[in-house]
Amino acid sequence: MTTPARPPWRERAERLYLFFFAAPTDGSGAAILRVTLGLVAVWQAVGIVWNLHRFYSDTGVIPTAVVQYDRFLWLTPFYWAPKSAAVVDLVGGAFAVASVALLVGFKPRVAALVLAYTHAALQFRNPFILNSGDRLFMIQVFLAAFAPLGHKWSVDAWLRGRSGALAPAATMWGQRLVGLQIAYVYIASTVAKVANERWRNGMALRDVLASPVFAEWPVYVDFRPLIYFLTYMTLALELLFPFGVWFKRLRPWFILWGISFHVGIDVTMIIPIFSSIMIASYAAYLSDDEVRWVLARLRDPRLLLRRTPKGSAKQGTQPA
Predict the structure, then answer these.
(1) Cys staple from 81: which of 87, 142, 233, 260, with CB 3.0 to 4.6 Å?
(2) Is the distance from CB of 33 to CB of 284 less than 8 angstroms?
(3) 298 — phi, psi (to 5°)?
């Protein structure tokens, strides 16, 4: 009895899946992702520890009784010991320690999971100071735990080298999850924006820049060519980035475009941490060869003026 042949489309789909998710990696891209997320985490930790009892203890601005009926609070230590200052210190301290551990690469995957849990616990304890950046940070550090964060340039790698052990084989699976989450953010934002007439007619950014709620320095800009440009360029980035960033030749330009876009948001708008976590997550799109190409030119900027040999050009620009 012979096994029926699989349809060609199924084989092509499987090859594409394996190429995209199961491509091997030495952990270079994941190491850069670990550092960028670690820097954001340490920055978060400073703010959390500085305001720990003010925002999260029963004697602070939000007593536990205000949030005791939150349907997810029972998943956190705050539910089981609502009056305990020690629990507040424990959660805040765990977040701070995990932030440093992620940055230096000591058990970074465990550290990422601790960050995700403790950040979620703090969000459930005080949901009144949240913004979209907080949610995104929690999601991204959780997804990053599936990437080989400790394979390169980490305390784990140093300890492994001293013992003579080899790093286990790794794939791009975790990085792809982080990258797909960023793509989803842009697509969801585009869908929400085009449903609004002000975005469709090109005038949305005039409202945003004049808003005392959203703008860092509210100003009414009535120069329509500039408003049209800013509005439609925002839509263009959020629409095109989720698709264009996966193409190796377009990736550098989309990443530079995205960084410029989010720096502009951070300067002009009041959305704490959102732009930082978006930029930090861009590292997930980098292949190992691209990381080595960038690091080599950071060490020796003169390489930017040299023409890359044909053979290495193909290898250096292939996505992982």
Answers:
(1) 87
(2) yes
(3) -70, -35
